[in-house]
Amino acid sequence: MKKQEEIDIKPEINPNIFSEFQRINREREKEALREIPILEAKNVSKKFGDNIVIPSLNFKVEDIVGKSEIISILGPSGCGKSTVLKLIAGLIKPSSGQLFVCGNEITGPGMDRGMIFQKYSSFPFLNVIENISYPLITVKKIKKNQAFEEAKYWVDKMCLNGAEYKYPHQLSGGMQQRVAIARTLCMNARIILMDEPFGALDRKIRWEMQDLIAEILFFKPIQEVTILLVTHDISEAVYLGDRIWIINKGQLVYKEFLDRPKEMARISQGKKDFQEIVAYFNEKIDNLDIN
Ligand SMILES: Nc1ncnc2c1ncn2[C@@H]1O[C@H](COP(=O)(O)OP(=O)(O)OP(=O)(O)O)[C@@H](O)[C@H]1O
Ligand SMILES: [Mg+2]
Tens digit of pLDDT per residue, the chain (291 long)? Predict the structure, then answer.
Protein backbone atom coordinates (compact mmCIF):
# COMPACT_ATOMS: atom_id res chain seq x y z
CA MET A 1 0.00 0.00 0.00
CA LYS A 2 1.18 3.50 -0.76
CA LYS A 3 2.40 5.40 2.28
CA GLN A 4 0.01 8.15 3.31
CA GLU A 5 1.31 11.56 2.43
CA GLU A 6 1.96 13.64 5.53
CA ILE A 7 2.16 17.37 5.12
CA ASP A 8 3.87 19.84 7.36
CA ILE A 9 3.14 23.49 6.77
CA LYS A 10 5.03 25.55 9.29
CA PRO A 11 3.80 28.83 10.71
CA GLU A 12 5.87 31.79 9.66
CA ILE A 13 6.32 34.22 12.48
CA ASN A 14 7.70 37.64 11.74
CA PRO A 15 10.56 38.26 14.22
CA ASN A 16 9.97 42.05 14.00
CA ILE A 17 6.70 41.54 15.75
CA PHE A 18 8.61 41.37 19.03
CA SER A 19 9.67 45.01 18.90
CA GLU A 20 6.00 45.96 18.84
CA PHE A 21 5.78 44.06 22.04
CA GLN A 22 7.92 46.44 24.04
CA ARG A 23 5.06 48.89 23.68
CA ILE A 24 2.44 46.38 24.81
CA ASN A 25 4.55 45.52 27.85
CA ARG A 26 4.71 49.15 28.90
CA GLU A 27 0.94 49.41 28.66
CA ARG A 28 0.43 46.53 31.03
CA GLU A 29 0.43 48.71 34.09
CA LYS A 30 -2.63 50.62 32.94
CA GLU A 31 -4.85 47.58 33.01
CA ALA A 32 -8.53 47.92 33.82
CA LEU A 33 -10.16 45.02 35.60
CA ARG A 34 -13.75 43.91 35.23
CA GLU A 35 -15.65 43.59 38.48
CA ILE A 36 -16.34 39.87 38.07
CA PRO A 37 -13.33 37.57 37.78
CA ILE A 38 -13.00 35.48 34.64
CA LEU A 39 -12.42 32.40 36.76
CA GLU A 40 -12.99 31.67 40.41
CA ALA A 41 -12.72 28.60 42.65
CA LYS A 42 -14.37 28.59 46.07
CA ASN A 43 -13.40 25.78 48.44
CA VAL A 44 -13.26 23.23 45.63
CA SER A 45 -12.43 19.68 46.62
CA LYS A 46 -12.24 16.51 44.56
CA LYS A 47 -12.13 12.93 45.76
CA PHE A 48 -11.85 9.78 43.68
CA GLY A 49 -13.07 7.10 46.09
CA ASP A 50 -10.93 7.54 49.22
CA ASN A 51 -8.26 9.44 47.32
CA ILE A 52 -8.52 13.16 48.12
CA VAL A 53 -6.84 14.64 45.07
CA ILE A 54 -7.85 18.24 45.77
CA PRO A 55 -8.43 19.09 49.44
CA SER A 56 -9.54 22.71 49.07
CA LEU A 57 -8.78 24.96 46.15
CA ASN A 58 -9.39 28.71 46.13
CA PHE A 59 -8.38 31.18 43.47
CA LYS A 60 -9.55 34.20 41.50
CA VAL A 61 -8.34 35.19 38.05
CA GLU A 62 -9.06 38.82 37.26
CA ASP A 63 -10.71 39.63 33.95
CA ILE A 64 -8.53 42.28 32.34
CA VAL A 65 -10.31 44.49 29.82
CA GLY A 66 -8.96 44.03 26.31
CA LYS A 67 -6.20 41.64 27.24
CA SER A 68 -5.59 37.94 26.92
CA GLU A 69 -3.57 36.09 29.50
CA ILE A 70 -1.77 32.80 29.89
CA ILE A 71 -1.51 31.05 33.22
CA SER A 72 1.14 28.35 33.13
CA ILE A 73 0.50 25.50 35.54
CA LEU A 74 3.40 23.41 36.76
CA GLY A 75 3.63 20.65 39.32
CA PRO A 76 4.81 17.08 39.88
CA SER A 77 3.11 14.18 38.13
CA GLY A 78 -0.11 13.18 39.88
CA CYS A 79 -0.50 16.48 41.79
CA GLY A 80 -3.89 17.14 40.20
CA LYS A 81 -3.18 19.48 37.26
CA SER A 82 -5.35 17.60 34.77
CA THR A 83 -8.04 17.20 37.44
CA VAL A 84 -8.16 20.99 37.91
CA LEU A 85 -8.51 21.53 34.15
CA LYS A 86 -11.24 18.88 33.88
CA LEU A 87 -13.14 20.51 36.74
CA ILE A 88 -13.00 23.88 34.97
CA ALA A 89 -13.97 22.23 31.67
CA GLY A 90 -17.00 20.78 33.47
CA LEU A 91 -15.99 17.25 32.44
CA ILE A 92 -15.99 16.19 36.11
CA LYS A 93 -17.81 17.69 39.09
CA PRO A 94 -16.23 18.86 42.34
CA SER A 95 -16.92 16.76 45.44
CA SER A 96 -17.63 20.05 47.20
CA GLY A 97 -17.27 23.76 46.51
CA GLN A 98 -17.96 25.79 43.40
CA LEU A 99 -16.24 27.04 40.25
CA PHE A 100 -17.33 30.09 38.29
CA VAL A 101 -16.65 31.46 34.80
CA CYS A 102 -17.45 35.17 34.56
CA GLY A 103 -19.62 34.79 37.65
CA ASN A 104 -21.61 31.83 36.31
CA GLU A 105 -21.29 28.57 38.19
CA ILE A 106 -19.82 25.73 36.17
CA THR A 107 -22.25 22.83 36.08
CA GLY A 108 -20.96 21.05 32.97
CA PRO A 109 -19.14 21.70 29.69
CA GLY A 110 -19.96 24.99 27.97
CA MET A 111 -19.18 27.04 24.88
CA ASP A 112 -17.26 29.56 26.98
CA ARG A 113 -14.56 26.94 27.60
CA GLY A 114 -12.54 24.82 25.22
CA MET A 115 -10.12 22.04 26.08
CA ILE A 116 -7.08 20.91 24.15
CA PHE A 117 -5.33 17.67 25.04
CA GLN A 118 -1.91 16.41 24.13
CA LYS A 119 -3.35 14.23 21.37
CA TYR A 120 -6.50 13.05 19.64
CA SER A 121 -8.33 16.36 19.76
CA SER A 122 -9.65 16.10 16.20
CA PHE A 123 -12.15 13.83 14.49
CA PRO A 124 -10.17 11.47 12.22
CA PHE A 125 -12.95 11.26 9.61
CA LEU A 126 -13.31 15.03 9.14
CA ASN A 127 -10.97 17.27 7.16
CA VAL A 128 -9.41 20.44 8.57
CA ILE A 129 -12.26 22.78 7.60
CA GLU A 130 -14.87 20.31 8.86
CA ASN A 131 -12.96 19.75 12.10
CA ILE A 132 -12.70 23.47 12.84
CA SER A 133 -16.31 24.23 11.93
CA TYR A 134 -17.81 21.14 13.59
CA PRO A 135 -18.80 22.78 16.91
CA LEU A 136 -20.10 25.86 15.09
CA ILE A 137 -22.50 23.66 13.13
CA THR A 138 -23.45 21.16 15.85
CA VAL A 139 -23.42 23.35 18.96
CA LYS A 140 -23.93 26.91 17.72
CA LYS A 141 -26.26 25.74 14.90
CA ILE A 142 -24.59 27.99 12.35
CA LYS A 143 -25.28 27.19 8.67
CA LYS A 144 -22.64 25.00 7.04
CA ASN A 145 -21.51 27.55 4.44
CA GLN A 146 -21.12 30.30 7.01
CA ALA A 147 -19.32 27.96 9.42
CA PHE A 148 -16.90 26.95 6.64
CA GLU A 149 -16.18 30.62 5.94
CA GLU A 150 -15.46 31.19 9.61
CA ALA A 151 -13.23 28.11 9.67
CA LYS A 152 -11.29 29.44 6.67
CA TYR A 153 -10.50 32.61 8.61
CA TRP A 154 -8.96 30.49 11.36
CA VAL A 155 -7.11 28.32 8.86
CA ASP A 156 -5.37 31.51 7.79
CA LYS A 157 -4.70 32.74 11.34
CA MET A 158 -3.25 29.39 12.36
CA CYS A 159 -1.09 29.17 9.23
CA LEU A 160 -2.86 26.09 7.89
CA ASN A 161 -3.35 27.35 4.34
CA GLY A 162 -3.03 24.51 1.87
CA ALA A 163 -4.20 21.92 4.41
CA GLU A 164 -7.91 22.78 4.34
CA TYR A 165 -9.05 19.47 2.88
CA LYS A 166 -6.52 17.18 4.55
CA TYR A 167 -7.48 14.69 7.24
CA PRO A 168 -5.77 14.57 10.67
CA HIS A 169 -3.65 11.50 9.80
CA GLN A 170 -2.19 13.44 6.87
CA LEU A 171 -1.03 16.29 9.12
CA SER A 172 2.05 16.63 11.29
CA GLY A 173 1.57 16.78 15.07
CA GLY A 174 2.08 20.57 15.15
CA MET A 175 -0.56 21.08 12.48
CA GLN A 176 -3.02 18.83 14.29
CA GLN A 177 -2.64 20.94 17.41
CA ARG A 178 -3.16 24.11 15.36
CA VAL A 179 -6.44 22.62 14.10
CA ALA A 180 -7.49 21.93 17.69
CA ILE A 181 -6.62 25.49 18.76
CA ALA A 182 -8.44 26.94 15.73
CA ARG A 183 -11.56 24.97 16.62
CA THR A 184 -11.59 26.36 20.14
CA LEU A 185 -10.92 29.96 19.05
CA CYS A 186 -13.58 29.62 16.36
CA MET A 187 -16.13 29.02 19.12
CA ASN A 188 -15.14 32.29 20.72
CA ALA A 189 -14.29 30.53 23.97
CA ARG A 190 -13.24 32.86 26.80
CA ILE A 191 -11.15 30.17 28.43
CA ILE A 192 -8.91 27.63 26.77
CA LEU A 193 -7.68 24.74 28.85
CA MET A 194 -4.55 23.15 27.48
CA ASP A 195 -3.22 19.94 28.97
CA GLU A 196 0.38 19.47 27.82
CA PRO A 197 -0.67 20.55 24.32
CA PHE A 198 2.83 20.45 22.86
CA GLY A 199 4.13 17.52 24.93
CA ALA A 200 4.28 15.20 21.94
CA LEU A 201 6.09 17.64 19.66
CA ASP A 202 9.82 17.96 19.12
CA ARG A 203 11.67 21.02 20.39
CA LYS A 204 11.67 22.97 17.13
CA ILE A 205 7.98 22.48 16.47
CA ARG A 206 7.28 23.32 20.11
CA TRP A 207 9.06 26.66 19.66
CA GLU A 208 7.03 27.34 16.53
CA MET A 209 3.84 26.61 18.42
CA GLN A 210 4.88 28.85 21.31
CA ASP A 211 5.62 31.70 18.91
CA LEU A 212 2.31 31.22 17.18
CA ILE A 213 0.45 31.31 20.51
CA ALA A 214 2.39 34.45 21.48
CA GLU A 215 1.44 36.03 18.16
CA ILE A 216 -2.28 35.33 18.25
CA LEU A 217 -2.64 36.10 21.95
CA PHE A 218 -0.18 38.87 22.66
CA PHE A 219 1.06 40.56 19.50
CA LYS A 220 -1.95 40.49 17.22
CA PRO A 221 -4.74 39.67 19.64
CA ILE A 222 -7.91 38.60 17.93
CA GLN A 223 -10.15 37.98 20.89
CA GLU A 224 -9.92 38.08 24.64
CA VAL A 225 -9.03 34.69 25.97
CA THR A 226 -7.51 33.27 29.13
CA ILE A 227 -5.42 30.17 28.61
CA LEU A 228 -4.62 27.72 31.38
CA LEU A 229 -1.58 25.90 30.12
CA VAL A 230 -0.49 22.76 31.94
CA THR A 231 3.03 21.82 30.98
CA HIS A 232 6.03 19.89 32.27
CA ASP A 233 8.31 22.11 30.21
CA ILE A 234 9.38 24.91 32.55
CA SER A 235 10.86 26.94 29.69
CA GLU A 236 7.52 26.85 27.92
CA ALA A 237 5.73 27.86 31.13
CA VAL A 238 8.09 30.80 31.68
CA TYR A 239 8.15 31.88 28.04
CA LEU A 240 4.38 31.98 27.56
CA GLY A 241 3.06 32.54 31.07
CA ASP A 242 1.82 35.90 32.33
CA ARG A 243 1.51 34.01 35.57
CA ILE A 244 2.98 30.80 36.88
CA TRP A 245 1.07 28.58 39.26
CA ILE A 246 2.68 25.62 40.96
CA ILE A 247 0.34 22.92 42.21
CA ASN A 248 1.35 20.29 44.76
CA LYS A 249 -0.96 17.66 46.25
CA GLY A 250 -3.98 19.44 44.78
CA GLN A 251 -3.07 22.77 46.36
CA LEU A 252 -1.96 25.97 44.74
CA VAL A 253 1.33 26.38 46.56
CA TYR A 254 2.91 29.17 44.54
CA LYS A 255 1.79 32.04 42.30
CA GLU A 256 4.00 34.48 40.43
CA PHE A 257 3.59 37.08 37.69
CA LEU A 258 6.04 37.04 34.80
CA ASP A 259 7.07 39.28 31.95
CA ARG A 260 6.01 38.49 28.45
CA PRO A 261 8.34 37.18 25.76
CA LYS A 262 10.53 39.79 24.10
CA GLU A 263 12.10 37.63 21.44
CA MET A 264 11.27 34.49 19.53
CA ALA A 265 11.17 31.30 21.59
CA ARG A 266 14.37 29.80 20.21
CA ILE A 267 16.40 32.95 20.93
CA SER A 268 14.75 33.94 24.19
CA GLN A 269 15.03 30.53 25.78
CA GLY A 270 18.72 30.26 25.02
CA LYS A 271 19.58 33.38 27.01
CA LYS A 272 21.22 33.31 30.41
CA ASP A 273 18.64 35.53 32.12
CA PHE A 274 15.85 33.31 30.88
CA GLN A 275 17.61 30.15 31.98
CA GLU A 276 18.09 31.61 35.44
CA ILE A 277 14.35 32.09 35.79
CA VAL A 278 13.80 28.52 34.59
CA ALA A 279 16.37 27.25 37.12
CA TYR A 280 14.56 29.17 39.87
CA PHE A 281 11.25 27.43 39.15
CA ASN A 282 12.99 24.13 38.63
CA GLU A 283 14.38 24.34 42.12
CA LYS A 284 11.00 25.33 43.57
CA ILE A 285 9.46 22.20 42.05
CA ASP A 286 12.37 19.96 43.08
CA ASN A 287 12.00 21.13 46.67
CA LEU A 288 8.30 20.33 46.94
CA ASP A 289 7.29 17.75 49.50
CA ILE A 290 5.53 15.24 47.28
CA ASN A 291 4.98 12.37 49.77
N1 LIG B 1 -10.96 9.43 36.92
C2 LIG B 1 -10.15 9.16 37.94
N3 LIG B 1 -10.43 8.14 38.78
C4 LIG B 1 -9.63 7.86 39.83
N5 LIG B 1 -8.51 8.56 40.14
C6 LIG B 1 -8.19 9.56 39.34
C7 LIG B 1 -8.98 9.94 38.19
N8 LIG B 1 -8.41 11.01 37.58
C9 LIG B 1 -7.31 11.29 38.31
N10 LIG B 1 -7.17 10.45 39.35
C11 LIG B 1 -6.09 10.49 40.35
O12 LIG B 1 -5.94 11.83 40.76
C13 LIG B 1 -4.58 12.15 40.97
C14 LIG B 1 -4.21 13.38 40.13
O15 LIG B 1 -4.29 13.05 38.76
P16 LIG B 1 -4.06 14.11 37.61
O17 LIG B 1 -4.26 13.39 36.33
O18 LIG B 1 -4.89 15.29 37.86
O19 LIG B 1 -2.51 14.48 37.82
P20 LIG B 1 -1.56 15.41 36.93
O21 LIG B 1 -1.01 16.45 37.83
O22 LIG B 1 -2.28 15.84 35.72
O23 LIG B 1 -0.39 14.38 36.56
P24 LIG B 1 0.51 14.29 35.22
O25 LIG B 1 1.52 15.38 35.32
O26 LIG B 1 1.14 12.95 35.33
O27 LIG B 1 -0.40 14.42 34.05
C28 LIG B 1 -3.79 10.90 40.63
O29 LIG B 1 -3.53 10.24 41.84
C30 LIG B 1 -4.75 10.10 39.79
O31 LIG B 1 -4.52 8.74 39.92
MG1 LIG C 1 -2.04 15.46 33.70
Answer: 445 677 888 887 777 766 655 555 555 566 788 889 999 999 999 999 999 999 999 999 988 888 899 999 999 999 999 999 999 999 999 999 999 999 999 999 998 999 998 886 789 999 999 999 999 999 999 999 999 999 999 999 898 999 999 999 999 989 999 999 999 988 889 999 999 999 989 999 999 999 999 988 887 777 889 999 999 999 999 999 999 999 999 999 999 888 888 889 999 999 998 999 999 999 999 999 988
CA distance 275 to 168: 35
Does pTM top 0.90 for this prediction?
A: yes
Quick one: fold of 30-112+190-291? Rossmann fold (3.40.50)
Residue 180 near residue 116 (C-beta atoms within 8 A): yes
Relative to the alpha carbon of 78, which ligand is closest?
1
What is the domain partition of the chain in residue ranges? 30-112+190-291, 123-188
Find, among 235, 168, 238, 160, the residue nearest to 203 by Cα: 235
Distance between CA atoms of residues 115 and 136, nearest Å: 15
Ligand 1, pocket residues at CB < 6 Å:
48, 51, 53, 75, 77-83
Q: What one-character-per-residue DSSP string does 223-252 give?
A: S--EEEEE-S-HHHHHHH-SEEEEEETTEE
Question: Which mutation among 44, 52, 82, 193 tests ligand 1's pocket best, with the greatest number of atoms within 8 A of CB?
Answer: 82
In angstroms, the Cα distances linking 168 to 57, 123, 179, 191, 246 are 37, 7, 9, 24, 33
